[in-house]
Known about the structure:
Layout (H helix, E strand, L loop, with lengths): L2 E12 L1 H8 L12 E7 L2 E7 L7 H9 L2 E9 L15 E5 L2 E8 L20 H16 L7 H16 L5 E5 L3 E5 L5 E6 L4 E3 L6 E3 L9 E6 L10 E2 L5 E5 L2 E6 L4
Antiparallel strand pairs: 1-4, 1-12, 2-3, 2-4, 5-6, 6-7, 7-8, 8-14, 9-12, 9-13, 10-11, 14-15
Helix pairs in contact: 1-2, 3-4
Amino acid sequence: MCQLLGMSCKQPASIGFSFEGFRARGGLTDEHKDGWGIAYYRNQQAQVILDDSPAAESHLAEAIQKNGLKSKTIIAHIRKATVGQVKLNNCHPFQRSLWGSDWLFCHNGDLKGFNPFLDDEFTPEGDTDSELAFCYLLQQLKRHVPSGISNTASLFQWLNHFSETIASFGTFNIILSNGEWMYSYCSTHLAYVERKFPFSRVTLIDRELSLDLSEHNSHEDQMIVIATKPLTANEDWKVFQRGEARLFKDGELHLERVSGE
Length: 261
């Protein structure tokens, strides 16, 4: 399986601290050694950085962490290969264009017997079930809503419907974004934490490292951090249940479907 990380912010913020703990799981504190990637938005255009080496040992990952990459929306992924070779075009996040926007996607899980028909617009460049699911998801959105969706609640319902369909083939934990919002669907493992004023000191689980968030954020700052498993030991992480979905925007929970609905 793989590990996911996402951040949605009210204002551009650095992911450096969370990314330091996250990338340790790419070969140091966990077994996800088969590549990694990080993507962010700048002026609503997606920028994607991929590396097929272990994240914990990557000089590129270290440089990103130290340079304090900032954005309102950031998605990262560390890979343990289950379907597809260890190579760059099998690393997440994947990127495609739909309705005039850049979309980013990363997935944790395995899909068995998932072989949907794809038309010529959305086709995988690698050979993972993850990229296949992403292409299928976008294809279904375009087919059912060809003019695009201006109503976020309606979009949330469609994403839930198609995510449920794909999840019936196996494990489907995902983070998806178009730069404006961030959608997450859980099959097995996902959690999120809200950070806002008054900020406190937080401590990583995977590194001997703490940070006083109040020294790096103003009263107006607000952010959501999503991860496969909690990254810090002293924050109120909220754990997703199976089949739950949430949509975040500008560092806040915007829409959710909780267990039992």
